[in-house]
UniProtKB/TrEMBL annotation:
Homology family: Belongs to the UPF0280 family.
InterPro entries linked: ApbE-like_sf, MA1715-like, UPF0280
Residue ranges the record marks as coiled coil: none
Source taxon at top rank: Archaea
UniProt cross-references to Gene3D superfamilies, sorted A to Z: ApbE-like domains
HAMAP family (UniProt xref): UPF0280
Name of protein: UPF0280 protein EF807_06300
Organism in which the protein naturally occurs: Candidatus Methanolliviera hydrocarbonicum
Length: 239
């Protein structure tokens, strides 16, 4: 079943068997609580736009993953917040026995699927948006499918891409990299793609990325097949 769930700035869609949806909700609430306590103690964490290098004696898991991912991609830690929340929740669902668990946190997805599924491509006003989907074969490990945009949503992006989607089994890293790569997309798309390609190869944990700008779509690295699809905008979890 599919259920939408919101708490403060977090708006997610959860897809799984009914009994695991409550597990996901509890994880999201617990993770947000840990993060909010940490930010109250160090407000700089929530506004940093560069890697966070301060060491703390006691650091919650959500912060550890955000810091690790953002340091590898040279962005601020909050660039990885949505993907990390999704990842931790899916991990808890899997611990409880879920074989199919998906959490879409405003375009930052953590997924474990025991059957083929399709993830629609949403890229704002791009003519590509809503016409295609990624085909994800059954998996035994959680996959991160995270998207950043310079034209959609309220997240900070210094680029002009309609969508940059990154794939990795490190969901936090996929989220941070989507922001980092999105920041690189400028008017000269060929130069932007060369810069993204160089950054992609520096992180072996990243599988690949898809960049959409206007009518153009570029594929770098290893990405799932793309198939034609009629994406229902009502199913999109917007940030």
């Amino acid at each position: 079943m599919r259920e939408k769930f919101s708490v403060k700035q977090t708006n997610v869609t959860i897809i799984s068997d009914k009994k695991y949806i409550e597990t996901a909700k509890k994880s999201i609430l617990d993770t947000r609580k840990d993060l909010e306590i940490f930010i109250r103690e160090d407000p700089f964490f929530s506004i940093a736009l560069e890697p966070y290098l301060r060491e703390k004696e006691e650091t919650p898991e959500v912060v550890k993953r955000m810091v690790s991912a953002s340091n590898k991609t040279e962005v601020g830690p909050m660039a990885a917040v949505a993907g990390t929340i999704s990842w931790l929740a899916v991990e808890e669902m899997v611990k409880d026995g879920a074989k199919y668990a998906l959490i879409d946190n405003g375009g930052d997805i953590a997924l474990l699927n025991n059957k083929r599924c399709y993830v629609g491509i949403y890229a704002g006003e791009s003519p590509i948006s809503g016409r295609y989907a990624f085909e994800i074969e059954p998996r035994e490990k959680i996959l991160g499918i995270c998207t950043s945009s310079g034209t959609v949503g309220h997240s900070i992006s210094f680029g002009i891409a309609d969508a940059v989607t990154v794939f990795s089994e490190d969901v936090s890293l996929a989220d941070a990299a989507a922001t980092a790569f999105g920041n690189m997309v400028e008017d000269d798309l060929e130069e932007s793609l060369n810069n993204i390609k160089e950054a992609l190869w520096k992180n072996e944990e990243l599988s690949g990325t898809v960049v959409i700008k206007g009518e153009r779509m570029a594929f770098l690295g290893d990405v799932p097949p793309i198939v034609s699809a009629d994406v229902d905008e009502d199913l999109i979890t917007k940030p």
